[in-house]
């Protein structure tokens, strides 16, 4: 598998806070990689650096071998680097269908309005929202708003999809549905970087895990190893709790 996305020593500070500090990793074609870390670790900032919302102060972002470090968000979308947002904010008065078509047009991935709408219908069918296509986005439940967020990013015909906590706030059944959808997206050949707090999700969909703490990548490896890694447990629980946790032989 060749590297589709590559970060090389990427850093970004806000005031005195090093939100992302010298981060390097690759995402290969067809991979699902989880990005985990405690609150404030820098996960969303990293997605913003990859998609041109923020510009790195140091380091490079390469997409398909091309240096895209200084790209704008619309250019990222056009290249096939799509993302979802942690706080989903569809245009509330537009219909579900119009929201998805607008994303397709933003990414320039379609040949005119008719084509964008046809594709939007297909993506709504794919995520299971065809039955609410003509209702205003504001009327959707939270799980459906999350599905709309996925449909919007799929309408950009992405090669890489960056998912920012798409399962937050969902119940167990809804999470199972979301996991099924994530697997079906990967089966379309889309590489996925998923920011996730739920270990069940990390363990069941990712092939590799990156652990971010205070802006730095502190560990990287297979999911089963990462959830038992001393450094990772300490980052989440603090050294005292981590010691007790491991002494008691707890299983994550
Ligand atoms: N635009 C900004 N201006 C100032 N500080 C910022 C900005 N964006 C992020 N930060 C700071 O950078 C650090 C990393 O934040 P970030 O949101 O990337 O973390 P996160 O890992 O995504 O957290 P969470 O899991 O809570 O979403 C935090 O200290 C945050 O307050």
Largest sheet: 6 strands, mixed
- What's the mean pLDDT score? 91
- Given helix and strand content, the structural type is alpha/beta
Rg (C-alpha, Å):
18 Å
Structure in words:
With 252 residues, the chain is an alpha/beta fold. It has two domains: 1-80 and 160-170 and 190-251, P-loop containing nucleotide triphosphate hydrolases (Rossmann fold, 3-Layer(aba) Sandwich); 86-157, no CATH class. The chain is built from ten helices and ten strands. A hairpin with a 2-residue loop joins strand 9 (208-213) and strand 10 (216-221). Helix 4 (112-127) crosses helix 5 (142-154) and helix 9 (230-237) packs across helix 10 (239-247). 41% of the residues are buried. The model has no long low-confidence stretch (mean pLDDT 91). The chain binds adenosine-5'-triphosphate. The site of adenosine-5'-triphosphate has 11 residues, from strand 2 and helix 1. This is ABC transporter ATP-binding protein.
Main features:
4-stranded antiparallel β-sheet, 6-stranded mixed β-sheet, 252 residues, 2 domains, alpha/beta, globular, 40% helix, binds adenosine-5'-triphosphate, Rossmann fold
Give the SSE map.
Elements: E1 3-14, E2 17-28, E3 32-36, H1 43-50, E4 58-63, E5 66-67, H2 73-79, E6 81-83, H3 96-107, H4 112-127, H5 142-154, E7 160-164, H6 172-187, E8 191-195, H7 199-205, E9 208-213, E10 216-221, H8 223-226, H9 230-237, H10 239-247
Parallel strand pairs: 3-8, 3-9, 6-7, 7-8
Antiparallel strand pairs: 1-2, 1-4, 4-5, 9-10
Helix pairs in contact: 3-4, 3-5, 4-5, 9-10
The chain binds adenosine-5'-triphosphate (ATP).
Keywords: ATP-binding, Nucleotide-binding, Plasmid, Transport
Organism: Pacificitalea manganoxidans
GO molecular function: ATP binding; ATP hydrolysis activity; L-isoleucine transmembrane transporter activity; L-phenylalanine transmembrane transporter activity; L-valine transmembrane transporter activity
């Amino acid at each position: 598998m060749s590297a589709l996305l590559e970060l090389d020593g990427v850093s970004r500070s806000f005031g005195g806070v090093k939100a992302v500090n010298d981060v390097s990793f690759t995402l290969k074609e067809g991979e699902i990689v989880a990005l985990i870390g405690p609150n404030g670790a820098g996960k969303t900032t990293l997605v913003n650096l990859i998609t041109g919302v923020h510009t790195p102060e140091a380091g490079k972002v390469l997409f398909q071998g091309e240096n895209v470090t200084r790209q704008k968000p619309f250019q990222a979308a056009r290249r096939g680097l799509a993302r979802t947002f942690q706080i989903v904010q569809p245009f509330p008065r537009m219909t579900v269908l119009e929201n998805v078509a607008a994303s397709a047009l933003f990414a320039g991935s379609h040949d005119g309005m008719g084509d964008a709408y046809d594709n939007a219908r297909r993506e709504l069918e794919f995520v299971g929202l065809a039955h609410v296509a003509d209702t205003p986005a504001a009327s959707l439940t939270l799980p459906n708003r999350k599905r709309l967020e996925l449909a919007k990013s799929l309408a950009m015909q992405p090669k890489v999809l960056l998912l920012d906590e798409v399962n937050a706030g969902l119940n167990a059944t809804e999470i199972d549905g979301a996991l099924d959808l994530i697997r079906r997206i990967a089966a379309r050949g889309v590489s996925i970087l998923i920011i996730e707090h739920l270990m069940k999700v990390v363990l069941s969909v990712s092939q590799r895990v990156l652990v971010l703490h205070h802006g730095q990548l502190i560990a990287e490896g297979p999911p089963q190893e990462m959830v038992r890694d001393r450094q990772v447990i300490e980052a989440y629980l603090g050294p005292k709790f981590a010691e007790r946790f491991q002494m008691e032989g707890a299983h994550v």
